[in-house]
Amino acid sequence: LVYLADYLLRGYGHESRLTHLLNTTDIYILPSLNPDGFEIASEGDCTGKRGGRENARGRDLNRSFPDQFSVNPRLDLTDVPEVRAMINWIQSNRFLLSGNLHGGSVVASYPYDDSPSHAVSGFYSRSSDDEVFKYLARAYSAIHPIMRTGVPNCEQDMEETFK
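Given the sequence above, the corresponding structure tokens read:
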């Protein structure tokens, strides 16, 4: 994302298409939601077992957001101020499209990719924008140097493949 920011800044005023995009679009770049985890993460660790998932207070930020299926989603966000800040940021901006780069296994996640029983596999959570999400995931994965091979090459699970 730092390279993306650099590209946008260097290209502004020099590339007409890019200049037009930046003049007509709000673009937000958040380099890291979890700088604590990033600091201790190990390159190539697809599971996060060597560190990187948790913040400085030992909480997994990815598992600390409200759940769309929770009946009573009261959350204690004391140990995850990053999550509270992100929720406030999301609620104070009108995002039309967003993307994120998630550390760990090589995957293209769709919004709402969960089930009421939190099934790990065998459940597809379709959304009203499903075709758009699938198109974006395919377009991204087709040019990603690892995703396009179908083999993530994670040392913890060398048998893992994806379509």
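The two ends are 25 Å apart (CA to CA). Try to locate this feature in the token string yourself.
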